[in-house]
Amino acid sequence: MSIRHLAIPLVLAATVLLAACANPISSSKTAPPQPNVSVAQPAAADSARAVNPAGPTGFAAAPAAVQANSAGSALPTLPSVNRMIIKNGALGISVDDTESALSQVGQVVQSVQGVITNQTVRTENGAVFANLVIQVPPDNFESALAALRNLRAKGSPVLNDSVNSQDVTEQFVDLQAQFNNLQRTRDAYQGLLSKATSVADIITLTRELNTVQTQMDQIQGRQNLISRQAAVSTINLSLTPVGVASIGGPAPLPDPAQAAKQAWQALLTGLQGLAVVLIWLAILTPIPVALAIGGWIIYRRLTNAPRPT
User: Fold this and answer.
1) Among 92, 126, 105, which residue's Cα sits nearest to residue 248?
2) Which of 151, 31, 141 is nearest to 97 (CA)?
């Protein structure tokens, strides 16, 4: 082989060697791709603020602080939760003319899309008193109270003003979770019942199905009650003529939970009194009984004693 034939491979090898020495790192190491999270994070934050404008304290904005995990993928935001709040209020004001005030109350109730469910007007010693039960949408509860307060006589204070709010969101969510669990249990029992062939199995599964269905109906009834109470707010309004003391109209119905508590306490008090009476009877009854038995024995001996001939 000639030198000319060996020169060509040597030139090619030298060219490759020079190219490798000129750039030894750039060909072997490349910059790692950066995760594209700089745009996804603000978008997720904007979506969280759009779902829950309340800010970091809301349900939907809580995961905004952890928009991406260690791998850089965005986490889904939680859905917002509608709060269920039962609002009740009692308001007592003094008015110049009760009949004119009743007309103004009707206008206020109509403006807040409410309804008067009960109205009682009575006359005592020439003075006219009125008691009303007003139901309004929860969103208009505060504005309705403010408008009714403005109906009082000029310069007169508000006689009674109380507001009671109860958040039942957690209670409603717990009931819904119980209902869902019972529903899955019922579906499982129905699947087993469709495959059962033994009479004993059919009777047992049917009994269990009825028990689960009864529990579901009870939970659904409680949910419906909570929904109705949260869907409307109640205001008990009393109108009293200026300069006349209120003579006590019909008192508003007590809260069901408070009434049940009072009834339970009354039952416990009655049982305690009955227990005290039984203890006194157990201690004191043997004494008069023993005296009565002893007297009867003595009387019988005296009457049955032999008479002297």
Assistant:
1) 92
2) 151
Please, which residues have CB within 8 angstroms of residue 130's CB and are 6 or more apart in sequence? 98, 101, 102, 119, 120, 121, 122, 238, 239
Rounded to whole angstroms, the Cα distance separating 50 from 196 reads 52
Tens digits of residue pLDDT in 156-172: 888 888 888 888 888 88
Q: Which residue has the higher pLDDT, 245 or 33?
A: 245
Q: How many residues does the chain have?
A: 309
Beta strands in 80-190 (DSSP E): 85-95, 115-124, 127-136, 160-167
Q: Which three-class secondary structure state does DSSP give residue 256?
A: helix
Of 51, 81, 111, the last residue of a domain is: 81
Per the CB < 8 A criterion, the answer to whether 160 and 238 are in contact is yes
User: How far apart are alpha carbons 252 and 232 in whole angstroms?
Assistant: 17
Q: Are residues 55 and 137 in the same domain?
A: no
Q: How far is CA 193 from the centre of its chain?
A: 36
Q: What are phi and psi of 61, to 5 degrees?
A: -85, -10
165: its two tokens: 């709010």
Q: Rounded CA gap, 185 and 167, in Å?
A: 30
Matching residue, tokens 């965005």: 74
Range of the domain at 61: 39-69+77-81
- Residues 263-287: pLDDT tens digits? 877 887 888 888 888 887 788 788 8
* Cα 234 from Cα 22, distance rounded (Å): 86
Q: Which residues contact 72 (CB under 8 A, 6 or more apart)?
A: 35, 36, 37
- 8 Å CB contact between 158 and 91: yes
Q: Is the pLDDT of residue 233 over 80?
A: yes
